[in-house]
Amino acid sequence: MHISEISIKKYGKFEDFKLPLKSGFNLIYGENEAGKTTLNSFIRRMFYGMALRDRSGVKTNDRARYMPFSGGNMSGSLKLDLGSGENIVISRTFGRTAAADRLSIVNDATGEEISKFAGESVGEILFGCSDGMFEKTLWLRQNGTYMGGSDDEITRRLINLATSGDEEVSASLAAENLATLQKSLKAADNRSAPGKIDKLQRELNELTDEKLRLERKRETLAEYEQKYAALQKERAGIERTIEEYKRAQTAVEAKQKFDVAQKIDEYSAEIEELKTTDDYINYIDIDEARKFEISEKNRELEEFGKLSGEDVSDDVTAELEKARKKKRLRVLAFIFGGIAAIGGGAAYGFTANWHFSIIVALGLAIWVLALLDLRKIKCLIAEWQSKIDAIAQSELDKKSKFDILNQELCEIYRELNVTGYGDLLEKSANAARIKAKIELLRENIQVLLDGKDLEQLRQEASGYEQSSQIFESNKAAIDRTLNNGQSKLLFITEQIQDMKRSINMLFAGEESLAAITSNIAKNKEEIEELKLQLAAVMMAREELANAANEMKNNFTPPLNSAANEVIKGISNGKYSDLRVSEELSIKVLQDDALIEGEYLSAGAFDQIYFALRMAVVELLCGENKILFLDDTFTQYDDVRAKAAFDYILKISRECQVVMFTCQSRELFMARERGNINVITI
């Protein structure tokens, strides 16, 4: 797979710009601000689109950063050769918001939309990785990442890649995600929120009940269809008998047509008579909104009627009377205490006997206590009286509302000329029955006409008198046979129509049994799949604790092997062995000694990181890939740059390479080798 052409209609500084690419090594050279970063962004956005929301600054928000200088929306396309004889064109338009974005993927030869690329994740389908993983594997920029033991950035990313396949997803986060996923699949207990399996099981139970109900309906349907078939058969027999008499005696046809025309006239007359009935005229056109309004008012009136005039509660009245009785007792005590105090004082003044002073004290005490209690009782009496008044006012309000509502209904009933709601329902129902009968009579007329014109039928029936004289001897038998057959035909036809309506109504609005059966099967399949997922999640959680050892045994050796192949080539054999320890600290074999990565130069750091990135690409990205390099070798000296450049040239034999650079050194090396597509912008 390779990009064959970049076409930009508008994107940043570019407008109506085209750039052809070859399948091998493509080097795009440009000085600073020539547009390399803009091309980088355009290619990536063609594959992965733009985020729905990006509130970051202009420097990282491509939607804001690359809006065309001349105005309008960003747009363009990529032509891709998929390597199997199929060439596609990815076209996108980006507006100022995600709602204005548009995507089109067509076959370059036919212009037809390609369904397998439907949706926004074109890059995921083509490269098998997300936008984030694409940036961390196939898109290599100048990188200042350094290594410093088990918690440095490279080590962290390698651990994440080993346990989750994504540099930004850690094992601990994966464990949390698995726990969350397990809860989303199956609730731990009845107190927890139901999971997908619980919800699907509940749906399955409901679907099973629905299936049983529909199966019972199907049994009823089979009975109806059997009766329907019998009626059809009976009608067919009657029709054959009539046809035999038609073929035998042509003249009798006139009599039959006469009878049919007469029957149609009867039905028509009956229809006209039914249409003149008072109930049909006055109540057939009452709309459902009007009926609903009357129904609601009638329901409210009935609700008011059920409220049987709430009288003042006996308990409230009893409490009020009890308080008044208590008040009377306290008044007597108040008077008694006053008299005792005054009398005792007078006696003490005359006699100076201390016993009278005790009477004065007791009288005063009784007088004060009675006064205080009287104040409390007065408040209590006022409170109970307020409750009684509130209940009485509530009853008055209810009665007022009842009278208003009753008056409104009475006016409506007078307007509609009915005695009440029941009378209205009865007359509306009678109007509906008359309408149904009219429709049935019209259907019968259509059956009798059998597609013929009524005037033509009358004209054919006009020869009845003359024909009857020829067959005078057997006229009675023929008429009797035809009349009986026709009457029975009409009766059977009505029964067939009734049965047909019953069959149609039986499953009206019902989902088909086949659909429910399919849903049950699909539901069971989903449950089984989710149970497998649940088992897998539980197993994954159990095994995740051993992820470090699994990484050492299953991921680190092939990673080391692939990285060593790269480091040997780009370092001219200087670093012959790159090793990642059990704790993922990185060491390099140099001059028969293992050197900690942190002691190497900045250029060596970049080489090791480049080797690891290329190893990750080899292990994770498969064969369907395009390698993008953006000023990747800025910190390399000439020797390192030449070795890395030759390594990239070697890779370009297997996949397309697109290198962006502002360094004349890379431009010189590309021109020197001669088999590289050099583009200057």
Structural commentary:
The two termini are 24 Å apart. The protein is flat, with a radius of gyration of 49 Å. It is of the alpha/beta class and 681 residues long. Mean pLDDT is 80; it is low at 144-154 and 466-470. A hairpin with a 2-residue loop joins strand 1 (2-11) and strand 2 (14-20). The strands form three sheets. A five-stranded antiparallel beta sheet has the order 2-1-4-5-6, with helices on one face. A five-stranded parallel beta sheet has the order 7-11-12-3-13, sandwiched between helices. A three-stranded antiparallel beta sheet has the order 8-9-10. It has helices spanning 36-48, 62-65, 122-127, 131-137, 153-164, 171-185, 196-248, 250-275, 278-283, 288-306, 314-351, 354-416, 421-449, 454-461, 464-470, 475-506, 513-544, 547-554, 556-570, 602-620, 638-651, 664-673; strands spanning 2-11, 14-20, 25-29, 74-81, 87-94, 102-107, 139-141, 577-580, 586-590, 593-596, 626-630, 656-661, 677-680.
Strand content: 5-15%
- The chain-level mean pLDDT equals 80
Overall number of strands: 13
Sheet with the most strands?
5 strands, antiparallel
The whole-angstrom Rg is 49 Å
> Within the largest sheet, what's the order of strands?
2-1-4-5-6
Low-confidence stretches are 144-154, 466-470
Fraction of residues in H or I helices: 55-70%
Tally of individual helices: 22
